[in-house]
Fold this protein.
Amino acid sequence: MAAKLLFAKPNPDTYSLVTAQSSRWLAARDGLLIALVNPKIIIFFSALFSQFVDANSQLWEKMLMALIAGGVDMLWYMLMAVVITNPSSLVAYQRHSRWLDKLFALVLLIIALSFIIQIIG
């Protein structure tokens, strides 16, 4: 995936201006729905918080951690939905998306190489 992103030729159609007709409330609603129905979120937070939850933990401690995880995640997706639906943010992202693709490709490549080095070493 990293190599495909890194060596992809720019497509002028990809970087054309596309705006969505949506309100901030609809964007926030979409962010909330993403946070609630994404199974990867459950897996991520289970792995993250499993080291803090003990079998003998009180119910209120477990509920507090679940609320913190859900609240932070929900706020993040709502923020992203609101920011991305802002036309000026969308234009800026589209203007710089070619370089952002290259940057994220390099990050993915570094992560993949570190995994390979750990497996070999």
In short: Residues 87-120 form the longest helix (34 residues). The two ends are 24 Å apart (CA to CA). Residues 2-8+22-120 form one domain.
